[in-house]
Amino acid sequence: MKTICSPLDADLIKTLRAGDEVFLNGTMFTARDAAHLRVNEHILKHQQPPFSLHHQLIYYSGPSPSSPKRKVGSIGPTTSSRMDAFSEPLLQHGLKGMVGKGERSKALQEWLVQYQAIYFVTIGGAGSLLSQCVEDIEPYLYEDLGPEAIYRLNVNHFPLYVAYDIFGGSIFR
Amino acid sequence: MHRTISSQVIQEAVEKLCYRCNIFLPADIKNSLEKTITFEKNPRARKLLGYLVENAKIAEQEQIAICQDCGIGYFWVEIGQEVMIDGDLHQALQEGMAQAYTKGFLRKSVVRHPFDRINTQNNCPAVVHVELQAGNHLHIYFTPKGAGSENCSAVSFFNPTATMDTIEQWVIDQTTAAAKKACGPLIVGLGIGGSADYCSLLAKKALFRSIGSRNADPLIRDLEVRLIGQINSSGIGPQGLGGDTTVLEVFAEWFPTHIAMLPLAINIQCHAARHGRISL
């Protein structure tokens, strides 16, 4: 089983194929519907994203709250296709990976080929299991959005499947 | 026999119910997931199902939400007409849920208005259905319904002359499309007949049934069995990644309808089929 690190290396991306099971070590930023809307608006207004997306990974997730006993709440993926319409500007600014669940649009698959980026899926509905792969979580941007804020995660051995690769390959039947 | 139930008692019981539902996966769902691992032939699907069993165990041990999406609250209340509530039933349900979500570190996922989208910060309000029945019982069912599965729901209005093949194909198409988005293996709730609103309600209510239970009506029971077989033979598998376990169950409920109507609603439930009941 392959272990990969983020930020994602361009040469590594070329070796990944749809269906590969990999484990991720490193940083991911959470962002879902409301955060995507804001990041897109920011790019439109300032011609750059509010933080560097260079070779980064975005995780479509809205975690459940931290508690005094556990810093990391339940943190599984949300349905990725809702973010399709907002993804191209992020890819144009260097985003190299997205993590979520479920099939996405044809346009998204074409952008991944064009911008040489990967769409990964992880285990849907396994938020408590995945919380054990998150070593650290901190609010990063748009804190007013609560669960929809952007959080910076440090993950260790986080399970992923390559869903769409840069050659147009897909894991979905 | 008339009896009085205090809204305070209801609120406290509802708080416990809502918390429990988010942390402890019902035994029939856990057993069903474990059983599918022994039948599943696709290695990736088998591993994925194993992860889901493990997830439920971790949630229990660590007292953490099974899924980060602790849902929009949904109450189904059956109340006997000989029951008198001392206080406000609706307030007790909402306040009980709010307490569970706040004290239990569950995710608050409800916005106050579909357009301005401001989070209410306590998961209120829940959707509440109350059914007045004969007797002096009070049953409160709760499910925290996640958006990934709820978004895959649909209603179709068939012609009354539609063939069973047409109807089944629609359910198969809806379910296989949902299986590539929502967190499978799925549980499918079907509401057949009634009206546009009532078939939707039946589809949701069907999701409270226990794994392995079959509808008493032979036509509906056979439909359930056929659909399970046909959907699982699609090979789509859990979360669309291939395999034999696309659905754990198809539960159908029915109601008489109009001569010119054949409405059918589908409500999709993810494998984290959190639900529970209290009787007071």
Structural summary, described in words:
The complex is a heterodimer of chains A (173) and B (280). With 173 residues, chain A is an alpha/beta fold. Chain A has one domain: fumarase (Alpha-Beta Barrel), CATH 3.20.130.10. Chain A has five helices and seven strands; from the N terminus they run βαβαβαβαβαββ. In chain A, strands 2-3-4-5-7 form a five-stranded mixed β-barrel. The radius of gyration of chain A is 15 Å and the shape is globular. In chain B, helix 1 (7-23) packs parallel to helix 4, helix 2 (27-39) packs antiparallel against helix 3 (43-62) and helix 6 (164-179) packs across helix 8. Chain B has two domains: 3-23 and 66-145, Dihydrodipicolinate Reductase, domain 2, CATH 3.30.360; 148-272, no CATH class. Chain B is built from eight helices and ten strands. Helix content of chain B is 40%, strand content 25%. The interface between A and B is large, with 40 and 45 residues.
Features:
heterodimer, A: alpha/beta, fumarase, B: 280 residues, alpha/beta, four-stranded mixed sheet
Topology, element by element:
The complex is a heterodimer of chains A (173) and B (280).
Chain A: E1 2-5, H1 10-15, E2 21-30, H2 33-46, E3 57-59, H3 87-92, E4 97-100, H4 106-115, E5 118-121, H5 127-131, E6 134-141, E7 150-164
Parallel strand pairs in A: 1-2, 2-3, 3-4, 4-5
Antiparallel strand pairs in A: 2-7, 5-7, 6-7
Chain B: E1 3-6, H1 7-23, H2 27-39, H3 43-62, E2 72-80, E3 83-86, H4 89-103, E4 127-133, E5 138-145, H5 147-150, E6 154-158, H6 164-179, E7 186-194, H7 196-206, H8 218-232, E8 247-257, E9 262-269, E10 276-279
Parallel strand pairs in B: 1-3, 2-4, 7-8
Antiparallel strand pairs in B: 2-5, 5-10, 6-9, 7-9
Helix pairs in contact in B: 1-4, 2-3, 6-8
